[in-house]
Hints:
Radius of gyration: 18 Å
Largest sheet: 8 strands, mixed
Distance between the termini: 39 Å
Strand content: 5-15%
Shape: globular
Low-confidence stretches: 222-227, 233-237
Amino acid sequence: MIDQSTLSRxxxxxxxxxxLLGIDLSGKRVLITGxxxxxxxxxxxxxxxxxxxxxxxxxxTDAGRATAQxxxxxxxxxVDVVALDLLDRTSIKKxxxxxxxxxxxxxxxxxxxxxxxxxLTPEGWETHFATNHLGHFALVxxxxxxxxxxxxxxxxxxxxxxxxxxxxxxxDIHFADREYDPWSAYGQSKTxxxxxxxxxxxxxxxxxxxxxxxxxGAIYETGLLxxxxxxxxxxxxxxxxxxxxxxxxxxxxxxxGASPSLEGVTGRYxxxxxxxxxxxxxxxxxxxxxxxxxxxxxLWELSLEMLNA
Length: 309
């Protein structure tokens, strides 16, 4: 059952700027991954405009600096840029080691989607799972101390309605013994984003850290879609989908990251700026397996083993 306190007046048409209207983020420190394009840029822009001290963590620091300069021109706010490669554990550790003081809001925005062929990291990990889940999991765990130093830190992971395409297939996460499918791989990694929030909420309940996941909506104007082949099946989905602008797509992560109405809310999944219903059939709902506490616990422990191997 949805907690009535998580329902808002905002909806699929709301923009990131609208959900932040009247909210003062002065003094808040925000870290956003993948904020050199698409939803990350809009998220950084509106949060910086609301007074937050924003740091964007990006693989391409030249693009990151260009983004920071653009935001500075528009808002007058300074945005810091740090190098982050989610497939490089040394890079993740450096971001955490170099961070000084508390971290109030961490938005796990970066990601890849629907790589057409199976790609493995040097460790043998499937790349969607390694980037979208393991990289962000490593960052969240590494930033735990900084998050706990904030009086009410929030972590927001950008998942997707595409998590309905697959649970985490623990028996064969990396497609060693099953045929690779781009949408199953992507969906599995997005389910993992939600399960991480479920388990973190349980483990960190006493640390004042809220961890939630969100579905931003379908947005064409982002680099995430660069690998997507418009197959007949995808075209059919496209024809039935109401696409959002980037400003609308960034709204839910901004809302969950900053709205005073969600203070203390943790371990949930949001869509269109409201908590999603649990449903096997509603694409905007959350699949029951993404809320499974045993799967969440198993994923957390397995992720730690993989990263520490």
